[in-house]
Write a structure and sequence with these properties.
single chain; 7-stranded antiparallel β-sheet; 15 helices; 498 residues; 9% strand; alpha+beta
Length: 498
């Protein structure tokens, strides 16, 4: 006698059990690492806002009577090694960036950069590290050696995709339970409903993040295969097909054309776009050229960036690189990074991404809690389950606490962000093994994180000498996050079995 089919996919009980096991084991094996990627990725969304907020030198109300771009380029090159003339990348000052920033490679291949005040042309002292960049690297490569850390993050994206798909198949009534939330009397029942809710509402966002994250992380592995199949292994030919041919340095000095007329020319021909950055190659040589990067003024399209090349000697237009004129496949590839980081929208979209990322992170954590609870009911209390449960609690909750401490240290101290981060995270992991109900540790850890975020936001509003609109927005987001965490901690029961 066949078992009754369930769910929209008409699966029997045995098939549901298989998909449930797949969903559970993928979540447990990669759960902590997935939580790290999702949570740190939520913070990485606010790159420009957090840098403006964290680094006092970047705070400026308005940029009036700026030094010309050509003069800023000249000053920047005088501050960088000679090797920087080979290729340098420039970010222009504007509403989202307070300084003129040039980055290049030195003779040993290391990144060197200089920041200039766009009004005076003076070099702006810039910290070698920041809390934001440290937390961003946690998302992109888990602070593991490159490129292996990036590849691991890419594989974690594949893990998440498998877990999401198997989760949908393992919960045939997920659509019927979109609004089912039972608070107590049993904590396990509340956690189960919360996990299903988070998974259902975050399914589309999680699928997009998992797929795009896998593509970005594993691109270094797939790119050679793509080149071999499309261009018979000719990397130079593949690069020229998209970026155009790069002229080789001749060693013959030449007078450079002014950049500002070229920028004005491109922006007048493309009024919906503006130049926010550009690449300089062989500057000062007769083979010098510039690639002007155009971005949409109002974030109207996911795939909208273009790069226009010009000779810096003759001013002649060269190759135009863009994702919108090479078929559907190229358009989709060009949409991967904007989709992953919410680059096609403003602050409102990134706030939606932030909340969705928090939902994913909490969904991963509650899924692991459910797995441990199910195993305890089936197998009884085991030491291995206790260790895994407390390790998950310490790692996930500790990451939140450590991130708050790192951000506060970066803003008010400016040094020792990394030691503070690792120390707080390690201490949290150790405290998680203290005997007693785990829910109590979770509750007080959430309260501590909320208090830290609240103190940082309020202190910055109260004591900062200059509060720009962007800085105030970051402080308000910190305060709002603190209130959300505090409310969540208050809803948790004060006592529960471990």
């Amino acid at each position: 006698m066949s078992s009754k089919k369930k769910g929209p996919f008409r699966l029997d009980q045995r098939q549901l059990a298989v998909y449930f096991d797949i969903h559970s084991w993928f979540g447990v094996v990669g759960g902590i690492a997935l939580f790290i990627c999702c949570f740190s990725g939520s913070l990485a969304l606010f790159e420009r806002e957090i840098l403006d907020w964290e680094i006092p030198q970047s705070r400026r109300e308005a940029i009036e009577n700026p030094v010309s771009i050509d003069e800023l380029v000249r000053i920047a090159y005088s501050e960088l090694p000679t090797a920087a003339a080979k290729q340098a990348f420039v970010w222009l000052p504007g509403p989202n960036r307070a300084t003129f920033n040039m980055r290049a490679n030195d003779d040993e291949g290391n990144f060197v950069q200089v920041h200039l005040d766009p009004v005076t042309g003076e070099v702006v002292p810039w910290p070698e590290s920041s809390a934001f960049r440290f937390l961003t690297h946690l998302h992109t490569d888990l602070h593991l050696p490159r490129p292996f850390g990036r590849y691991l993050v890419g594989f974690l994206g594949v893990f998440m995709m498998v877990s999401l798909i198997s989760g949908v198949l393992a919960h045939p009534k997920v659509l019927q339970q979109l609004f089912l939330m039972r608070w107590r009397p049993r904590l396990s029942l509340t956690v189960r409903d919360l996990h299903v809710q988070l998974g259902a509402w975050g399914l589309v966002f999680g699928s997009v993040m998992a797929f795009t994250g896998a593509v970005i992380g594993l691109l270094g592995l797939f790119a050679p295969v793509m080149v071999l199949s499309a261009f018979d292994g000719d990397v130079e030919k593949a690069s020229e097909a998209f970026f155009g041919a790069s002229a080789e340095e001749t060693g013959v000095d030449a007078e450079m054309r002014r950049l500002e007329p070229l920028i004005e020319r491109v922006e007048s021909e493309h009024p919906a776009f503006e130049v926010r950055s550009f690449t300089l190659r062989n500057h000062g040589d007769e083979a010098a050229e510039v690639g002007l990067n155009l971005e949409h003024r109002e974030h109207r399209s996911i795939v909208s960036g273009e790069t226009h090349q010009f000779s810096l000697v003759t001013g002649e237009a060269g190759h135009v690189a863009k994702f919108t004129n090479r078929g559907l496949g190229t358009r989709l590839f060009g949409a991967v990074q904007p989709l992953h980081y919410g680059e096609f929208g403003g602050l409102g979209l990134r706030l939606i991404y932030f909340v969705s990322g928090a939902v994913l992170s909490l969904g991963i954590a509650t899924g692991n809690v459910l797995w441990f609870e199910r195993r305890r009911r089936r197998d009884g209390a085991r030491r291995s389950h206790f260790v895994l449960r407390r390790l998950t609690l310490g790692a996930c909750l500790g990451l939140v606490l450590a991130s708050v401490a790192c951000i506060g240290c970066g803003r008010f101290v400016g040094t020792a962000m990394q030691p503070v981060f690792w120390s707080v995270w390690l201490l949290s992991a150790v405290v998680a093994f203290v005997p007693g109900p785990g829910i109590r540790l979770l509750r007080w850890g959430a309260f501590a994180s909320a208090a830290g975020a609240l103190i940082i936001g309020v202190a910055d509003l109260a004591f900062s000498p200059l509060l720009t609109p962007r800085v105030v927005r970051v402080d308000l987001v910190l305060i709002g996050t603190a209130l959300f965490l505090g409310a969540g901690a208050a809803l948790l029961p004060s006592k529960a079995a471990d």
